[in-house]
Amino acid sequence: MFGRLLWRLLRGNRGRLAVALVAMASGAAVISALFNMQFDVQRKMTQEFRTLGANVVIAPAKSFDDGATLDRNLLNTVEMVAGADVAKAPYLYIVARTDANRPVVLAGTWLNATSALRPYWKIDGEHAPFSSEATSCLVGTNVARQFGLKQGSELRLHYGANEARLIVAGIITAGGAEDNEIVASLPVVQDLASLRGRISLIELRVPGTAQEIQAVADRLQAASGDVRVEPIRQIDQAEGALLGRVRLLIISMSALIFVLTALSVLATMTALAMERRADVGLMKALGGSIGRIVALFLAEVSVLGIAGGVVGYLIGALLTIWIGRSVFGAAITPRVEVLPLIVALMVGVALAGALPLRLLGRVKPAVILRGE
Amino acid sequence: MFARLVGESFVRNPRRILLAAAALAVGMAVTTAALSVALDVGDRLAREFRSLGANLLVTPQSDSLPLQIGGVDYRPVDEGAYLNEADLGKLRTIFWRHNILGFTPFLDSPADVSYVTKSLVTISVPLIGTWYEHEVAVSDGSKFLTGAKFTHPWWKVEGRWFADDAKECVIGAGLASRLSSAGIGGAPVAAIGSTIEISSRGAGRERIPVVVTGVLSTSGPEDDAILVPLSLAQQISGHPGQFRQLFVSALTKPEDAFSERDPASMTPAEYDRWYCSPYISSIGTQIEQVLPGSDARAIRRVAETEGRVLTRVSGLLWLVTIAALVAAALAVAATSAATVIERRSEVGLMKALGATNLMVGGIFLAEQFVLAITGGAIGFLLGSLLARVLGASVFGTPASLRLVLLPIVLGLATAVVLLGSVIPLRRAARFEPAPILRGE
Fold it and tell me: What pLDDT, on the 0 to 100 scale, is given for residue B43?
C-alpha cells in the first residue's frame, strides 16, 4: 500500500518532480565536480610548479672561489637519503678557453637530466635524450651569438693542455646565467679539467611543502658531513605561499558554490513541500494519520534526492573530465567515493527542504480543500 | 487593472514570492561572487607571484661574455660594458610603467677585504653593490621607492640593512660563518658592528673602512659575498654611475600564441596590440627603448612557471564559474517553474473569466520580471559582499566592487526567470479551465 501510494505520488507529480530533479541534479553535478577536483587539483598544481626547477642545492662548505669540489660518491648518499625518485643532477663548473683563447664557463652535468631540473630552458635544436651524449653540448644564447655558433657547429675547448671536441646540439634561452654557459656531459668536463670523480654541486628537486623540503635538506646535511645543503629559499617559500593561495582560492570557491547550490535546492524542495498541502488535506480528510503522511512525503523526497544525486554525479563526472582536459590537458579521474557522499548530501538537503512539513500538522482539511 | 493584478499576486501570497526571490537572490549572489573573483584572480595572483622576485633581467647589449659561476662574475672589472644608473628613472615613464613594481641594479666586482685579528688579514671576496630601499627620481618629478626589498623579497637579514648612502655593508651568511671560524680566540671577526676595510682587488688600492650592519642569508651566491650600497661599490670599483645587471619585477600577462610571434613579423596593427599588452616581451622591449644599449630578457624560470600556473588557475576558475552559473540558473529556473505550475488553478480561473492566453502570460511574466530585478539586485549586493570577504580571506585585500557586473547579473536573472516560466506558461496556455478548476 505504502509503495503503491509512493509510486502513484511520483507518477502523478511528474512535472513538478522533474523540475525539482533538474535543480537538484545540476547542483549535485557542480558539487561532485568540485569534490572530484579537490582530490586531484592540488597534485596537478604542484606539478605545474615543477617548471621552477631545482629547490635544494648541495655545495662544498667553502665557496667556489677557493676551488673546492665535492666527491661524486656523494650522489649515492643523496640517493639513499632522499630516495631514488627525487630528480637530481651533479654539476661541475670550470672556465675553459676556446680556440681563440676566449674564456667561457663550461658546465658538466647529466645532459639527459636537464629536462627535469631545468624545465624552463627553451632549447632550439635537439632535446633530451641526446643521441650521443659524449660529444653533444648545449650552448647559451649569448655564447652562440658571441662565438657565432649554431646547431651542428663544431666547438673545441681547451683547459690547460687538455682539449675537448663538442658538437652543438641546441641553443639554450633561459634568461639567466645559463645564457652565458656551455653545457656538456659531466665525464667530458671532468676529463677536460682532470677532475675525475669531482663535482662542484648537486641540484635536487624535492617534492612537497617548504617544511618537507627543509626536513629532507636536514637529513641530507646530517648524512653528508662537511657540505652545505640549502633549500633555495626563493623557490620553496614562494612556491609554498602560492600553492597555499591557489588551494585556498579553490576551496573557498567550492565552499561558496556548495552552500549556495544547497540553498537553491532547498528552496525548490520547500516549494514542493508547500505545494503538497492540498494532498495532505485530502489524505487527512480520508482519515490518514499525520505520521503516515509525513513518512510518505519523506520517502518521495528521498527518492528524489537519490535520483538527483546519481544523475548529478554522472553529469559531474563528465564535467570533471572535461575541465581536466581543457585546463590541464589531462583528464581528472572521477572518484567513486564521491558518489555516496553526493547522494547522502542530496538526500540530506532534500529532507531539510521538507522541514516546512511541520506546518502540515496544522493543516485543517476543510480550509485546504476549499482551495484557500 | 494589469498592474493591480500583478501587485495583488505579490501581496496575496508573500511566502511564495519570498521563497522565489530568495532562491533568485542566492543564485545571483553566487554568480556575482564567482564572476568578481574570476575577473580579479589573474591580477591578484600575478601580484602574488612577485614573491618569486624579478622576472626580467636587463644586461648591457655589447657585453663581453660574463664568466659567472655561482652568481659571481669572474671577469676583470675593466672588461665588459656597463649601463648608466642615471637612466633608471625612465623605467617609470614607459607605457606599462604602473606594471613595474620594482627594479634593482647590481654591480659586482672582485674585492679585497681586510680586518684585524691578531694581525692584519686580507682575503678576496666578491663585492656586490645594490639598493635595498632607494628612492629614484622619475623624470616626471615623482619619486619611486625600489630596491632588493621589492625584487628579492626572500632575502633575510640579521641585524639591519645598510643605509643607502652610508659606508655600511651586510655580509653573506656563508662568508660570515667562515670568517668567525677563522678568528681564533679574540673578538669574532666581522661581527655586526665591527669595521672592515674594503678595496678593489690588487695591491696599493685605496682601502675604505665600512661598518658591518647585518648578516644576509639568501640561500644563493650572495651568501658568499659582501653587499654594499651601489654608490659605494661604484666608488670602490671605479665605475661611478654605472651598473651591470638590472633585475625588474613586473606584472605581466601570461604568454600566449600571439605573444610568442616575432614582433618584427607583425603587421602594424598587430604590433600595436602586442606593444600595448603587458606581455613580458613587450615590457622588455619598452625597457630596452629607455635604457640605451641594454638587452632585456625574461627570466624564464620565473616567467614560465608564472605563465603556466596563471593560465591554469584562471582557466579552472572560469570553468568552475560557468558551471556554477549554469547550476544556479537551472535552480532558479526550476523555482520559477514551480511557482507557475503551482498556480495552475489561478490560470484556470482567469481563463474561465475570459482572460486570453496573452493576458495571462503577460501577468505572470510581469510578475516574474519584477521578481528578477529585485532578486537580482539583492543577489548582486550579497554577492559583492561575499566577493569582498573571499578576496580578503584568500589574498588579504578585499576585492573591489564591480558595478559592471550589475547589468550583467540583472540581465541574467531576467533571462533565467523568464526561461523558467515560459515552458510551464506555454503548457498553461493549453489548459482547459474546467478540469483545472475542478482540481484535477
Answer: 80
A55-73 pLDDT, tens digit each: 888 888 766 555 678 888 8
> Which pLDDT belongs to residue B186?
46
The reported pLDDT for the residue numbered B185 is 45
Q: Which of A121, A196, A201, A139 is nearest to B69 (CA)?
A: A201
Identity at B14, one-letter amino acid code:
P
Beta strand segments in B117-182, E: 120-130, 134-137, 143-146, 156-159, 168-172
Instruction: Output the CA–CA distances (angstroms, integers) from residue A146 to A58, A108, A257, B73, in the order listed.
Output: 32, 21, 57, 17
Low pLDDT (below 50) residues in chain B: 184-186
Nearest Cα residue in chain B from A228: B174
Q: Are A268 and A20 in contact (CB under 8 A)?
A: yes
Identity of the residue in B26, B34, B154 whose CB atom sits nearest the CB atom of A238: B154
End-to-end CA distance of chain A: 30
CA-nearest residue of chain A to B420? A19
Which residues share a beta bridge with A94? A106
Residue-level pLDDT at B122: 79
pLDDT higher at A39 or A322 = A322
Domains of chain A: 2-47+241-369 (no CATH), 55-231 (2.40.40.20)
Which of helix, strand or coil describes residue B420?
A: helix
d(CA B224, CA B220): 8
pTM: 0.78
Distances (CA, A) of B50 to A205, B54, B56, B255: 21, 7, 11, 16
Q: Does B261 touch chain A (CB under 8 A)?
A: no
* Interface contact B341, partner A, CB < 8 A: yes
Helix (H) or strand (E) holding B433: helix B433-437
Closest chain B CA to residue A145: B65
**Contact state of A63 with B178 under an 8 Å Cβ cutoff:** yes
Interface of B with A in 61-90 (CB under 8 A): 63-72, 74
**In whole angstroms, what is the distance from residue B371 CA to residue B367 CA?**
6
Is residue A104 a contact partner of residue A139, using CB atoms and an 8 Å limit? no
Report the distance separating Cα B215 and Cα B61, nearest Å: 34
Mean pLDDT, range A89-116, rounded to an integer: 88
